[in-house]
Amino acid sequence: xxLGTVGAARASAQSWQRTELPITRTILSDGTPxxxxxxKIGSRSIMAGLDTGSVGLRVLSRFLYKDYSPQxxxxxxxxxxxGVELKGNIVKSSVTFGDISGSPLLEFVREVGCVADQPHxxxxxxxxxxxxxxxxxxxxxxxxxxxxLGMGESEIHNPLLALGVHRWIIEIPxxxxxxxxxxxxxxxxxxxxxxxDIQTIPPFSKYSGALHDAxxxxxxxTDANDKDCGVVILDTGxxxxxxxxxxxxxxxxxxxxxxxxxxxxxxxxxRAAEKLETDSQDKSRRLKIDSESKxxxxxxxxxxCLYNGFYIMYDQDQKTIAFKPxxxxxxxxxxxxxx
Length: 339
Prior knowledge:
The protein is an all-beta fold. It has two domains: about 15-165, Cathepsin D, subunit A, domain 1, CATH 2.40.70.10; about 195-335, Cathepsin D, subunit A, domain 1, CATH 2.40.70. It has helices at about 190, 305-310; strands spanning about 20-25, 35-40, 45-50, 55-60, 75-80, 85-90, 95, 100, 105-115, 145-150, 165-170, 180-185, 195-200, 215-220, 225-235, 240-245, 260-265, 270-275, 285-290, 300-305, 310-315, 320-325, 335.
């Protein structure tokens, strides 16, 4: 039997308004997969890039009506891992996700640049009129908004909270079909069945980015019968796999290998696992090793891999992430439940 599922413990799920939004898959000209949902800000529809590695709704000013210039005395400054820095104002605005509306805080971005220690970030490659969020610095690619669905705190919170959303399920489109993705807000009791709960790591609750939602786990090098363990980070906005470790085992990692990602709970009991094959030609499965002599912690950045193998649910109230295996679509992504 499964090592615990979450459906029985959440009888109140049907008391919240449910809605769902299609998730669209876009491939940038450099081969990077991006995912987005259509939302409304005021009466304006806009595609927002889906990013579980950041927090908050942030909108480039030029993508809203030209005469929409909200006044705010609260300045905002948000930095992404790529070095891109967004500067603007924190404003409250009417936002609609499917059938649910509310007035969350968002960042009205007036300026895009690079932080001093990453002067050649993607924002440096283009004039502002050509830059899009999650566009990798490619002209006229990316999105007018970025939807940061991390559960951490920031100067602006995840906008779903202001809409009365307590849980959400991310089902990204399968790799060969861009029509089957969904973002489900306030899923029903039936939709909760079969998920495997994993608690996020409490000491990281002070962080606002992807590290806030990290879980425990390892990546196993099946070919070399070796592994690296640490915190596992999920991030739809950062495709690919990256291991940051001082472990000597990293010398056994090669570009195209068979591997297994395992996820554990706070008692280090394995709760779920996914088999995969790294691929240097596929940006969602490309492996990069950062062998640091004294890293602050060993990290396994899994990018999109776990989203390809699992339906993934975030529970803001419980600070948990739950996983439900998808039907296998290829030999590269075969999810399995650990019995």
